[in-house]
Amino acid sequence: MPKSGSRSSSKKAQKAGSNVFDMFSQKTVAEMKEGFQIMDRDKDGILNKEDLRSIFDEIGRIISDEEIQEMLADADGPVNFTMFLNMFAEKNKGEVDDDEVIKKAFLAYSNEEGFIDCDNFRHALMTWGDKFTGPEVDDAFQHLPIDDDNQIDADELISMLTAGSGGDED
Q1: DSSP label at 22?
Q2: How many Cβ atoms from other residues are within 10 Å of residue 8's Cβ?
Q3: Rounded Cα–Cα distance for residues 24 and 54 (Å)
Q4: Which has the closest alpha carbon to 159: 94, 92, 107?
Q5: DSSP 3-state assignment of 144?
Q6: pLDDT at 114
Q7: Residues of 21-43 as b/e, b for ≥16 C-beta within 10 angstroms?
Q8: β-pairing, 151-153 with 115-117?
Q9: 8 A C-beta contact, residue 150 and residue 118
Q10: How far apart are CA 61 and CA 83, in angstroms?
Q11: CA 119, CA 140: separation in Å to the nearest integer?
Q12: Which of 162, 14, 31 is nearest to 88 (CA)?
């Protein structure tokens, strides 16, 4: 009897420590691994100052050495893939939505034909939740599939923001 009690205690201890890989779906872990490998320019399995500098240069964003050091200082040690996942888990606690949740959120703004009115959507983005500024909405809208009638194709938008879970069934 005591043996099985200690066995269950050990299972609880293991679960309480929680493996970071259990916090994400296999698909998400695979996508993050691919992203990590792209960022790891010197292929040593650790993200360092040179790796980050190279990525920011590639995307055309100016970043200071101090900003890079601050990013790296967020980690409790060298930023290997496990640490990378831990950092994402910590930053996104309670903020990671399933693709289905994202899909339903955008479909709530769409009409019967599957389009989202840009003016109504702009108003919503600037009024509720984590409010966007006008320039932030303008920047986001530059990347959205907006037609000549000032409508956003909801399925296309959902596909852009998720792993292709929009309405691409032809």
Answers
A1: G
A2: 9
A3: 27
A4: 107
A5: coil
A6: 94
A7: eebbeeeebeeeeeebeeebbee
A8: antiparallel
A9: yes
A10: 24
A11: 13
A12: 31
Outline where DSSP puts E strands in the chain: 115-117, 151-153
CA 152 to chain centre: 22
- Taking residue 63's Cβ as centre, other Cβ atoms within 10 Å add up to 14
| Assigned token pair, 28 | 């998400």
pTM: 0.48
Q: What's residue 12's pLDDT?
A: 37
| Residue given tokens 């998720």 in the structure block | 162
Residues 6+ apart with CB under 8 A from 133: 126
Q: What is the DSSP letter of 76?
A: S
pLDDT tens string 105-150: 999 999 999 999 999 999 999 999 889 999 999 999 998 989 999 9
Rg (C-alpha) for the chain, rounded Å, is 21
